[in-house]
Amino acid sequence: MCCRVLVVDDDPRFRALARDVLEHRGCVVVGEAGTGAAARSATERLAPDAVLLDVRLPDESGFEVCAALTETGRAPAVLIVSAGDYGGCGVVTLCGAKGFALKSELVDIDLARFWPMSGAPRAQPPTASARLAAS
Fold first, then answer.
1. Staple partner for 22: which of 27, 64, 96, 116, CB 3.0–4.6 Å?
2. Strand 99-102 relative to strand 50-54: parallel, antiparallel, unpaired?
3. Domain spans of the chain, in order of start
């Protein structure tokens, strides 16, 4: 089994598609959110192991949301996704994300590269502030 995942995207159709793909691959989708504010609240409330996070949200960027989520005490592993290619963008790792994937590749990517397997302990990542200061 995969891990417990929160899906964050402003498009409910993509959230439904991501839920289907992730559940088919053995993940447990514990919740969905359509804004950065809702993602923060759901992460605090649900304590997911992982977050599938879109770059473009209506209230703030996914990069900002990721930085906030990964500064928490029990930070989830965040995989940034987008329809556009941000993979070569240094901000993906600076914000604390474990990686980047195109939405069109969600079906085929190896999620174990980015997310912990269920029950596996998570290492605490450096805070986003520490990562930005080191750059």
1. 27
2. unpaired
3. 4-134
CATH of 4-134 among 3.20.20.410, 3.40.50.2300, 3.40.50.300, 2.30.30.140: 3.40.50.2300
- Six-digit token string for 28: 């447990």
Please give the model's pTM, rounded to 2 decimal places: 0.82
The H-assigned helical ranges of 25-81 are 36-46, 62-69
Burial class of 89 by CB neighbour count within 10 A (0 to 12, 13 to 18, 19+): middle
What is the residue whose two structure tokens read 């989830």? Answer: 76
Q: From first to last of the 135 residues of the chain, give the pLDDT tens digit.
A: 679 999 999 999 999 999 999 999 999 999 999 999 999 999 999 999 999 999 999 999 999 999 999 987 779 999 999 988 765 555 567 888 998 999 999 999 999 999 986 544 343 334 444 433 433
